[in-house]
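Handout, section B. The chain below has 552 residues.
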Amino acid sequence: MIKRVEIIIKHNQVIYINYFNNLQGFLQLLLLMSRLHVKNLNHYDKSKKNEVDCLNLFIMAIFTFLYVVIHNSMNPLLVLSIIFIYFCVLITISYFTSRGADTNTFFTANRQSPWYLVAFGMIGASLSGVTFISVPGNVGKIGFSYFQIVLGYLVGYWVIIGILMPLYYRLNLISIYTYLEQRFDQWSYKTGSLFFLISRTIGSSLRLFLAATVLQLFLFDAWGIPFFVTVAVTIMLIWVYTFKGGIKTIVWTDTFQTFFLVTAVIITVVKISGDLGLNFTEMIAAIQAKGYTRIFHFEDVNSTLFFPKHFLGGAFIAITMTGMDQEIMQKNLTCKTLGDAQKNMFWFSLTLVFVNLLFLTLGALLYLYSEQHGLAIPEYSDELFPVLALNELGPLVGIFFLLGITASSYASADSALAGLTTSFCIDFLKFKDKEESIKQRQKFIVHLSFSLLFLVIILIFKEVNEKSVIDAVLNVAGYTYGPLLGLFAFGLFTNRHIKGLAVPLICVASPILTYLISLNSEIWFGGYKIGIEVLILNGLITFLGLWAISKK
């Protein structure tokens, strides 16, 4: 590939590195690259090999440009250019991956996805923009206690490997909620799908809102760009690169975005360690000396950090919000075989443990850096990483922070958009027996409608702009996913039957009852405060309610 690039460049009598002295030169190089791509594709009859070569050439130009960031100040034009290029690459990937795509490609990627790409890309989809800034920021308050939840995730993912994946592949599902129809009836099926649609629409909109708020506060406000424009353009771009290829495109774009997410964290860790004059061993010792590395808490059963709460909560979060979530499982179901899907989930789970440990290490270093340089800690710990990355740690870290938070937010949002579209089309529009032309038209309308719904919800969040409301919505997943946990568990672990209107009534009543118990738990249970385990309680109440209305 390198020799091929050198030949192309020399043939056009261009020494490409000289173009990076300024932004104008870079834009000239992009124009040259575009001409070269067209020339190569025409010459080689658009063969797949040369499609990949052209994509690699374009990506190489981007990385060369990013290298130059080290030697330049972080000015607005540079930042905007890089974000623009970032989305250009996503759209370029979409162009190649969506060629010849039909609705089956959108929903299943024709079950041809390489398992290792799915595994790596799922990291970006699992770690939202909230995680990207909140997990490091929380280290100053609770140390590495979050790792208790991560260990629970590991167990939850292995339950998915052993129980849920074999079920989904055996039934050859596109929407995983079709299982509820086969096991019970239409009422259970529609109820499960509807709870997913509500949960994912609100949750993904809020996560995108929080990430967009960070970009607006630290970047776009300075340029006088309205928040509405920022959000509308980003949602439009997500729609553009997902509307045709769907999940097939997302498997590849999420891999690309995960790379930037993880790279942003690694670069920041290396930069701060270097500034503090610490090698790897000294870095670990410094973090330990400040007490940040404490993970396990067994002392106080009433504490929200109590290990069994975090561990079991993490396990059931993984089982429910991954294994019973159409957005995440849709990627897994694009693998060729059950064995490939299980390999994907296994290696994803191990990699996610390492990535979360990296985030926690970053958080500790952010606090060490602030202390050594006499910097005030922001009132809201979520602002610590953005403040240091964009104001204190130099242009390279700043640029990769912006790319990282963009990647983490949009990898989550694009997957959600595809998952919501798939679930609505399969579960409510009965796509199975329709002609392809009708499927394409309806899928287009649904996909666009969810994009607009994201925009409306985000603008509502912006108008409300109350932290208490936002915190409440972030916690709503424990209530909206509980009925899914109860429904799937009842289907998997009993032989009893449920049907009729009573099912959705139970699923609506369960979160309400769970909320009342959680609200009064300290009074009713001798100071015991329900935290992350609210999902387990909600699922249990749903399960018991279904048992009460069931028949043998």
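Note. Residues 475-552 form one domain. Compare this with the example in section A.
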